[in-house]
Design goal:
This protein is mainly α. 63% of the residues lie in helices and 0% in strands.
Length: 98
């Protein structure tokens, strides 16, 4: 992969077009991080999971008068906020006396 990128970088450096030369400078400035990305193979699974949660929130938020309500609900559901009190309606947060 590095060889292919090096060939493209060399081509872009010699280009007569200013945007291509600018791209070459940007690639060269971030070269190590670009190559590490191909080695690490990160996935976007976590982002897709949050997106699915927000899509469910959108379905639940229909009829709310403003988009601010949707945004607030998305933060509450997907934000994993730790400083909020436990919901009195959530049965998993109650301690059941035996």
């Amino acid at each position: 992969m590095a060889e292919l990128l090096t060939a493209r970088l060399t081509w872009a450096k010699r280009s007569h077009e200013a945007p291509c030369r600018k791209l070459a400078r940007t690639l060269q400035a971030h070269w190590d991080r670009i190559l590490k990305r191909f080695d690490s193979r990160p996935t976007n699974g976590a982002v897709e999971a949050i997106n699915g949660t927000i899509q469910a929130v959108k379905a639940r938020a229909r009829g709310y008068p403003t988009t601010r309500n949707l945004i607030n609900l998305a933060y509450l559901v997907a934000g994993r906020l730790k400083h909020l009190p436990a919901s009195p309606y959530d049965i998993t947060s109650r301690v059941v006396a035996t």
